[in-house]
């Protein structure tokens, strides 16, 4: 079974505490020992200097009596030793013979260490082991009034090394070290217990496996997931969220508003717009967002793609409107058939024929007019259907006389979405007004562009609210059965901007609203214009015909 995080962290902390203690002790004692040695030898040298310059000492070293245990030199040296606390004060002549020593039996004998450097006029200090054990020594020459060397003074201070002192203090050090180690163990235990609670007593291998499973799950689910930190930066974004929001892996770590840009999507994800199942439009996609705050001040946002569902809902709304229109038409056709049947029963055959021609001609004229001006079959069928619905709502849907759209749409489905949303909004605005009318104009511009203009006879849109109509969720109408309103114009704007186009709201010439959409690349290039060889072959053929004539 893998060792738990609790035990692993505890062992590691104990090893770190022990290692750091040993390292710090070694680094501390090494310079400390050298410093203590230097101070001890300096003190021994200072005592030797003060002894060597005492008045009368050179004359006493020259006295004919020689060294003596009760002589003035011994007395002088012992007085200095007792006063300074030195281990010994040895005064010697130029031959290296002791004139003083704490052990009187050694007086008159040669010194135990080489006095040559001191007798040569140099000051000497070092740590040495002599007859009195380990000591810090200082040696200085003794000079007479004329500067001649007449002897030397050697002072020793009993001195134990730092190592010996440390070994002597081992019991005390162990007590302190044990106390410190106990405190460290207690701290490590508390930290490990906290980690145990936070990691739910899992092993490092378990945590690593959970992280791997989390990554696989986040990038495998079909919902977008975006994790934000407390500062609003992107902490994590899975593959589906990258697709829905047009983000890249390098956007992780960036501020959300910097990566997405200003707009409702950023407002929803950062929490400035609150609620459940919030709708927003991003790059032509209708998204449902839910935001869950986290304990660290951040949040996790889930995103679902509702584009197809929204389009299906709109198609169902259109189908419901069309069913209602067909039901009304059924009644109208029944009434017309009753009129036709009555005329036939009254044997008014000419009147019946004229009535039938009038009824059929109106619908045929409308369809022929639209298909003659709008060559794309899907878009023409949409407008024919919208004209029928408009007639049932007592609204006149007119395709402007200047309309002429060739059958070269790059994406007919998106154009149907744009035209359908604008016409639906215009019908809702114009319905119930006097001389209700909706106008549609489609014109090619620049070879590949299309300009769509939709006008209505409704109340219009005040200038201060013309930008607000493109915000997701904004609408003056009650919500439909399948969901919420306020997405049609927002979706139109996103589709236009995705194709590099624009959407503008203005006032129609006769009053009401006018919405103009410009799509610069909605049409495929005209092959006859795009391929210069077609014109060249046509010119060559014409030239050949002229020559033959």
Automatic annotation (TrEMBL):
It catalyses: ATP + protein L-histidine = ADP + protein N-phospho-L-histidine. It comes from the Bacteria. InterPro entries: HATPase_C_sf, HATPase_dom, His_kinase_dom, PAS-like_dom_sf, PAS_fold, sCache_3, Sensor-like_sf, Sig_transdc_His_kin-like_C. The chain crosses the membrane at residues 173-191. Keywords: ATP-binding, Cell membrane, Kinase, Membrane, Nucleotide-binding, Phosphoprotein, Transferase, Transmembrane, Transmembrane helix, Two-component regulatory system. It is a multi-pass membrane protein. Its EC number is 2.7.13.3. It is an enzyme of class 2 (transferase). It is found in: Cell membrane. Residues 56-76 are annotated as: Disordered. The keyword rRNA-binding does not apply. This is histidine kinase. It comes from Streptomyces hazeniae. The lineage of its organism: Bacteria, Bacillati, Actinomycetota, Actinomycetes, Kitasatosporales.
